[in-house]
Amino acid sequence: MESAREIFDKCCIEIAASIADMGFQYRPNKHLATKASADLKFEIHFQSSFRNYLVPDQRMDNLKQAVSKLIPFGDFFTFGKVALIEHASVFSKRLKEFRTSLPNNWTTNDAVIGCQIGNLQPSARWVEFNLANPHTRDKVIAEACQLIDTVALPYFDLFKNPPDVVARLLDGSMPWTWEPSALEYVCCFGGTDSAIQLLNRFINDSPSRAAEYYDVVLRYRTDGTPEAWDSRAPARLAKAAIALGLDGRLG
């Protein structure tokens, strides 16, 4: 009987092979498929779980299949769990140079965005696959490949045209998981005026956000910005605005 780790490794290799002809190179030891394209680097990362387990094989295999179809979460009961979560990340040399040039930067790496692929859909959601059931494994692998093909790869393609990314961020149609990096990106690739537009959109996203944002900006100007990021959106925006020199443009 294969171990959960062996099943996960084999499935990752199979999924990575489906994007090899698009230039992605797979590193099995890191469960990472990467592709470099001019200024950019794209990554697909496969994550599993330390809570994986397999139910030992039993003679009544047909019964196990029936149970898995009839009982909610039947695969967990009859076969176990071998989790597969897919992540997509984008990196940019130009953004790294921009960050390095900022006197008050909070990072100097080249990461643009990275998240679980399901969150890049119009309706963001957590997507986790279970590879434990050998009878449905091929179907699950096909679904995992489809998520990459229909969500991650089109998302990657957008970054080949930065003005399009900037426009989508400004109109709210670009899935993005963290406002400060979105503001950085727009500052770098779209300029200060566009970044001010995006900051205004973020600030006015809810009725109470603007007042709290301005309160935090005043406090940060007096006391300095903290090293740690606050969990509240207005505080995140205030810290990013000050670091990027956008705060003075809003009063």
Structural class: alpha+beta
The major sheet is characterized as: 6 strands, antiparallel
Give the CA-based shape: elongated
Q: Which regions contain 5 or more consecutive residues with pLDDT less than 50?
A: none
Helix content: 40-55%
Residue fraction in strands: 15-25%
- Average of per-residue pLDDT values: 92
- The rounded distance between the terminal residues' Cα atoms is 66 Å
Number of helices: 10
Extended strand count: 8
Series of H and E elements: HEEEEHHEEHEEHHHHHH
Total number of distinct structural domains: 2
**How large, in whole angstroms, is the Cα Rg?**
22 Å
What does this structure look like?
With 251 residues, the chain is of the alpha+beta class. The chain folds into 2 domains: 4-158, no CATH class; 162-250, no CATH class. It is built from 10 helices and 8 strands. It has helices spanning 4-17, 61-70, 74-78, 93-101, 137-158, 162-171, 179-190, 192-203, 209-223, 233-243, and strands at 25-27, 32-37, 40-47, 53-54, 80-81, 83-92, 111-116, 129-130. Strands 1, 2, 3, 6, 7 and 8 form a 6-stranded antiparallel sheet that branches. The longest helix is centred in the middle third of the chain and has 22 residues, at 137-158. The N and C termini lie far apart (66 Å).
